[in-house]
Amino acid sequence: MTAGGLAPAKAGAVEFEAKITPIVILSCIMAATGGLMFGYDVGVSGGVTAMPDFLEKFFPDVYGKTQDPNLNSNYCKYDNQSLQMFTSSLYLAGLVATFFASWTTRNLGRKPTMLIAGVFFLVGVVINAAAQDLAMLIVGRVLLGCGVGFANQAVPLFLSEIAPTRIRGGLNILFQLNVTIGILFANLVNYGTAKIKGGWGWRLSLGLAGFPAILLTAGALLVLETPNSLIERDRLDEGKTVLRKIRGTDNIEPEFLEIVEASRMSKEVKHPFRNLLKRRNWPQLAITVAMQIFQQFTGINAIMFYAPVLFDTVGFGSDASLYSAVIIGAVNVVSTGVSIYSVDKVGRRMLLLEAGVQMFFAQVVIAIILGIKVKDNSSDLHRGFGILVVLMVCTFVSAFAWSWGPLGWLIPSETFPLETRSAGQSVTVCVNLIFTFVMAQAFLSMLCTLKYGIFLFFSAWVLIMSIFVVFLLPETKNIPIEEMTERVWKKHWFWKRFMDDNQEVAAPGTKADHSLKNGHSNGLDPASQL
Ligand code: BGC
């Protein structure tokens, strides 16, 4: 790949010299707080929705239904479009925002994009906590959604670019770790505020989102810009200085040259989104879109958004429902740690495949218990079965937390070449938010129609996505980010067929050109991708 100067090959992979410096770790911790905000928004809506005061003020129809057990089927009491709109409006706004965020990440940098996100969050939180009517509530959610669009665009890219290759996976997952901490924090807050008498507990729940919002804004002011983004914007000297600082060595020339080269190719691309549709980018695009759709079709957000509502539906009391949501939130955080530890060791594919088996099993068991025990107008889920359902939900959530949760964000952020990385990340965020929106908007209605069968529906999807991983998802562990095209896509048994027009962008004598001629190999056996 790059001529000379590389550290010794390790397990078939080539690495640039890089120490794990405190500044890298600190920058990553600060940037990752963008995930806290996303997680808090995911977690908070289900909890406030289960609070009678909140329902009575904003959704009197639903409130009426929850108060009259004879009026409706257990499975249908929360089936209300405007209630679902409260949850889902955030994701709709976020997906529009990502297109603006793509422009800002590429032209202004990763750091200012995070700052923009922080400001949106702060304003959204204030409006939400002060909401007097449904309109204010939705406007607040829309602004939070814009924040999510900007943050989810910039943060994963920032982390993947600033991290040394060998711990890139682990550092990137800090984003997801923060998402899960945000969800847990929201669950804990809801558990506490639900006990507040006087009808303002929900305001506190929505207002405390200000805490992660402030952290992100402050973090965005303090972090360094990534060398990749500086070099992409022709600030070569600054890029080199930052690279030296974050890698903790003077021997940064090989990595610097590789980023310069990636950036040169990136500049030839005048229309990143149009370029994304070129045949040679189809593999990354297909993987990105599939990863996001699959992530949402695991059914995770049915649990994350609506766990309290779901537990209430199957007959837990209101307190037990919020309490169970806290347990699940904690399992989510701890299991994400497993991923941070193992992703750069066992690899991405292994985690996804193991989790597929575990999620499938848990969902089928949940469907069977609910099918037998929860009828439309009676739910006799005794204590033992109740505990079993919570256990199975924990089994499912833990598997998600070390697989599709973090890897849904990691893999797309590390597979695109610099030329299409921002545009690719926009597609990632956008598809994620579209399907998160679909889940938020549809789940309570699907629960009403499919009843316990909803969990069989998700388990079928888990089966499909696991087959996809077996055949079509290449391993990206330990591959430097600017070498993915050469070392992953051009070597994959299926995707390599889309790579033949890559000569177009490889000027004579460049690295890419050189590698094409030599059929440079990374030591990865394509057959092992199967
Ligand atoms: C997903 C969210 C989900 C969260 C759960 C994230 O990776 O994108 O939709 O709520 O994981 O931990």
UniProtKB/TrEMBL annotation:
Region of interest (Disordered), residue spans: 508-530
Keyword flag Transmembrane: yes
Transmembrane segments: 20-40, 83-101, 113-131, 137-159, 171-192, 204-224, 285-309, 321-343, 350-372, 384-405, 426-446, 452-473
Example GO molecular function: symporter activity
Topology class, membrane: Multi-pass membrane protein
Major location category of this protein: membrane
Listed Gene3D superfamilies: MFS general substrate transporter like domains
Subcellular location: Membrane
Keyword Transport: yes
Positions of the Major facilitator superfamily (MFS) profile domain: 27-477
Keywords: Membrane, Sugar transport, Symport, Transmembrane, Transmembrane helix, Transport
InterPro entries, alphabetized: MFS_dom (IPR020846), MFS_STP/MST-like_plant (IPR044778), MFS_sugar_transport-like (IPR005828), MFS_trans_sf (IPR036259), STP/PLT_plant (IPR045262), Sugar/inositol_transpt (IPR003663), Sugar_transporter_CS (IPR005829)
CDD domains tied to this protein: MFS_STP
One Gene Ontology cellular component annotation held by this UniProt entry: membrane
Highest taxon listed in the record's lineage: Eukaryota
PANTHER family: IP12678P, SOLUTE CARRIER FAMILY 2, FACILITATED GLUCOSE TRANSPORTER
Protein family per UniProt: Belongs to the major facilitator superfamily. Sugar transporter (TC 2.A.1.1) family.
Name of the molecule in the record: SOLUTE CARRIER FAMILY 2 FACILITATED GLUCOSE TRANSPORTER
Organism listed in the record: Salix koriyanagi
